[in-house]
Structures are given as structure tokens and as C-alpha cells.
Amino acid sequence: MISVRADAGRILIGKQLLPQTGKRCQALRLFGQCAIVSDTNVARQYADILKQSLISTGFRPTVITIPAGEKSKTLEQAGAICDRMIAAGLDRQSFVIGLGGGMVGDISGFVAAIYHRGIPHVQIPTTLLGMVDSSIGGKTGVNTHDGKNLIGSVHHPLLVIDDLDVLKTLPPREFNQGFAEIIKHAVIADAKMFRTLQSWGARSPRRPLALQALIKRNIEIKSMIVARDERDRTGERALLNFGHTVGHAIERAGDYRKFLHGEALSLGIVAACGISIRRAGLAPDQRDAIVDLLRQFELPTTLPKNFPREKVFDALKFDKKFEGGKVRFVVSPRIGAAYLTNDVTLDDIREAVEAL
Ligand SMILES: NC(=O)c1ccc[n+]([C@@H]2O[C@H](COP(=O)([O-])OP(=O)(O)OC[C@H]3O[C@@H](n4cnc5c(N)ncnc54)[C@H](O)[C@@H]3O)[C@@H](O)[C@H]2O)c1
Ligand SMILES: [Zn+2]
């Protein structure tokens, strides 16, 4: 097992960690009652192991299961979780454990942020995306009818437990989409990690030792960028949005059904590379290497011929303010570096999407 200090808390990465949760919580002087918030898919597999670990170390857990899927990430659902916690007698001394992917991480963190004006949050991410992205940086929240993550709070987890064993049951598409965020991190900040991923080739990316080191490195990259700009003020944190402007628009154009977030991001990265060639001097062979790496993890790099591209532009305009035809956009001049620029035009983006 390895342990990393990040954000305001500690992150443990290794095998067989879920059954040790009770012991780890004790070590942080947590005690008494807690809520285990999970979704239907994850609870079925892992809630009992977690509950037993907590009971055997003297905690009194209440399991609260919500339906799997992004549709559950609402204010109503957060309210219902709070009601269940009140009914079970949880108080200011209690804490919340989020057991699941980014959806559960976000809503359980939000509940922890508002319950009794804030109680400790422990995250047990069960998706690769959860481990390398959503559990880092402290952003918690829920969606509304008008958009994603419009209501929320910054509330760092006290402890994050990344148990590699839980990834065994993750469906391949869900597993691969985590690599879109990992490749994004490599492109914006770490050329060495980029080469390491290339060398993985056809070897199984599920090898625990390789995954452990990779997850650690991604946590370091994201938390370093977040630490420089926790509240999104200086533009540093915006680098993490590389590929996301077009990615989000594609997600929305596909009604959030056609592509998973990481798949839409993969396409957004390809578009951002095209724009980077034109506006930041990215070498075309570096763009090709990025596209090859995305493909290596079975991520899409072209849009289906009949995909409604005009819906992508509509979504872009909905999402971004184009002041004088320009938008703030993250570009990469070479693998391992990125910066924010105001030079990108709507036409640049249109061209890049048409080329997909
Ligand atoms: N807070 C942040 O900084 C941040 C960053 C990125 C994404 N997010 C949020 O994260 C969410 C996406 O996260 P996600 O991709 O993990 O989605 P998710 O939580 O919806 O999980 C994806 C699917 O996998 C299932 N699943 C999870 N773990 C499993 C396991 N070990 N075995 C079998 N099935 C499993 C889930 O039930 C679900 O059906 C979005 O809500 C997004 O807004 C937040
Ligand atoms: Zn993302």
C-alpha cells in the first residue's frame, strides 16, 4: 500500500483496503455513527464488506443506497439522504462515507458539506475516474435541470481509500473512460507519464502494481494544479479543462447517452489538439501520438458520420461566452505542457469539430 498526502487529507492506494476501512477511520479519531452512501450497483458488491469492517471496529453504520446513474445526483436526493441520516440519529460527531464512482463521491461529499454545517467525509472511489479525478480537489455538488454541478461546495475528504480490488468488477467501458482523464493529465503536465502509457501497449492495464503507481502520479498532478488555484481564480485550475470545452458539448449533443464523459473527453482532446496545432504550434506528429494513445485504451477519436455536428455548436454556444467571437481555451504547445489563451475563435472550434 502507498499513502499520499493531498488536499486536506490522506489518500491510501493498494489492494485489500476496503476491509481495513474501520481501522483506518479509527486511526483518524473518528467514532460512533456514520452513513455509508452508495449506489445500487456498487452497494450490491461492496456495502456488506464495508459495513462489517466498520461494525467490527465499533462504528455504527447506516447504509443509504440510491439508484445508480447521473440522474440521482440531485438536490432532492441529497435532501432525502439527509432525512435518512436525521432519522438514524446521526449528529455533528458523525461522518459520511461515499462508496462508489464520481456520482456517489459528489453527492455524498455535498451531504457531508451541509449536514450540521459540515461533517467529515471519507471517499472510497470505485471507478478509475473516481480515483484519479473526482475524489481530488474537494469539489462536491449536484446537478439541476439547467446544468451539471450548478449547486455545490468545496469540502475536502478527510480520507480517500483507493482499493484496486474493486476495479475488477468495473465494466470495461467505465474502466477505459478513466484513461481519458489520465491521458489529459499526461498531455498537460507529464511527458514522462505519456511515454510510460505508450509502453504499456497491449499489456493489461489492470495490472495492480502498474495501476497503483499510475493512480498515485495522477493524484499528484491534479492536486498540484488544484493547490495552486483552489477556487478557480488564477486560471491554473482551468488547465484541467483541456479537451473539456468540446467534450462537454459532444456529451450534451449526444443527450448524455451516446458517450460516457471520458469518451466525449477523448473526442474533445482530439479537437483541442487540432486547435493547438494552429494556435500553439503543437507538432502534428505529437497530435498523432496522442490520438494513438487514446485508441490504445479503446477511446473514440472520430465522431460517427451521421452524428449531428450542428448540435455540438449549439451546445458550445450554450456553454461558453464567445466575447467578440473568442473564447478562453486551453491549448498544448507540446506533450507535457498547456496554457490558457484568448486567441481561439469559434471558427477554430468549428473546424476542429468538423474534422472529427
Ligand atoms: N468532483 C469532481 O472534481 C469531479 C471530477 C470529475 C467528475 N465528477 C463527477 O463524477 C461523475 C462521474 O463519475 P463516474 O464516471 O465514476 O460515474 P458513476 O459514479 O456514475 O459510475 C459509473 C457506473 O459504474 C458503476 N460502478 C462504479 N463502481 C463500480 C465497480 N467497482 N464495479 C461495478 N460497477 C461500478 C456505477 O454504479 C455506475 O453505473 C459525474 O457526476 C461527474 O460530474 C466530479
Ligand atoms: Zn472530465
Radius of gyration: 20 Å
Separate helix tally: 13
Instruction: Please provide the ordered H/E string of secondary-structure elements.
Output: EEHEHEHEHEHEEEHHHHHHHEEH
What portion of the residues fall into strands of 2 or more residues? 15-25%
Class by SSE composition: alpha/beta
Biggest sheet, open or closed, and with what strands and sense?
Answer: 7 strands, mixed
Q: Averaging pLDDT over every residue, what do you get? A: 94
* Total strand segments: 11
Helical fraction equals: 40-55%
Oligomer class: single chain
Tell me the span between the first and last alpha carbons. 41 Å
Keywords for this entry:
356 residues, alpha/beta, 7-stranded mixed β-sheet, two-stranded antiparallel ribbon, 13 helices, 21% strand, binds nicotinamide-adenine-dinucleotide, binds zinc ion
